[in-house]
Amino acid sequence: DQQVKQNSPSLSVQEGRISILNCDYTNSMFDYFLWYKKYPAEGPTFLISISSIKDKNEDGRFTVFLNKSAKHLSLHIVPSQPGDSAVYFCAANRNFGNEKLTFGTGTRLTIIP
Amino acid sequence: DSGVTQTPKHLITATGQRVTLRCSPRSGDLSVYWYQQSLDQGLQFLIQYYNGEERAKGNILERFSAQQFPDLHSELNLSSLELGDSALYFCASSPVVMNTEAFFGQGTRLTVV
């Protein structure tokens, strides 16, 4: 039962444009959402998070949007840079972090120079 | 560098064997998590320890076990290995029980032949 879904295995975006990565979840008990970035041969690195009491969180070039009614979140990267090429994992947990993280399968983002 | 150290980085072993993966969390972090990433899959939560005590269990097989020692390092023991156990095994740590913004190690790539 995949409770966190990233339906796009890959995405290519031109440098300087906006990258939008999507994530859907099925468990309405999730109340904290995170995005991790992973380079080859490295562990995932925390990028940005959002709690269910918000619908937007921004950190520099990265913005996460949460639509609770649609059980959907998205990560916007603008402008996209070559160093953003990586696999992005969406993750969620319950009880504001007091339970395990459930990860999606990841989206491989390629930024085209 | 996340501050989480995993050894070994690579491990090749035969079916039926037993291996131990080691994780040293970031200095001061009390919580350790183990995740498994099989090919093209998301990160599957295996188990969490907090200050030496088991805190949460995920889809961990009975052939697998883990522990966290008084110095807070953790070991994941995998026994009676099967071909399907080949995967990347990640350890992550965080200061508290809350599984937010956990910091991941580089992973151990296990290949069972």
Brief sketch in words of this structure:
The complex is a heterodimer of chains A (113) and B (113). By secondary structure, chain A is mainly β.
**Largest interface, per-chain counts?**
A-B, 28 and 27 residues
**What's the number of extended β-strand segments of chain A?**
11
**Percent helix range of chain B:** under 10%
Mean pLDDT, all residues of chain B:
92
> What is the count of DSSP helices of chain A, taking H or I runs of 4+ residues?
0
Report on the biggest sheet of chain B: 7 strands, mixed
Q: Give the low-pLDDT segments of chain B.
A: none
Low-confidence runs of at least 5 consecutive residues of chain A: none
Strand fraction of chain A: over 45%
Terminal Cα separation of chain A, in Å? 38 Å
Structural class of chain B: mainly beta
Shape of chain B: globular
How would you characterize this protein structure?
The complex is a heterodimer of chains A (113) and B (113). The mean pLDDT of chain A is 93. The termini of chain A are far apart. In chain A, strand 9 and strand 10 (102-103) form a beta hairpin. Chain A is built from no helices and 11 strands. Chain A is an all-beta fold and 113 residues long. Chain B is mainly beta and 113 residues long. Chain B is 0% helix and 51% strand. Chain B is built from no helices and 11 strands. Chain B has strands spanning 5-7, 10-13, 19-24, 31-37, 43-50, 53-57, 64-68, 74-78, 87-94, 103-104, 108-112. In chain B, a hairpin with a 5-residue loop joins strand 4 (31-37) and strand 5 (43-50). The termini of chain B are far apart. The mean pLDDT of chain B is 92. Chain A binds chain B through residues 2, 4, 6, 9, 32, 34, 36, 41-46, 49, 89, 91, 93, 96-106, and chain B through 2, 4, 6, 33, 35, 40-45, 48, 56, 58, 90, 92, 97-107.
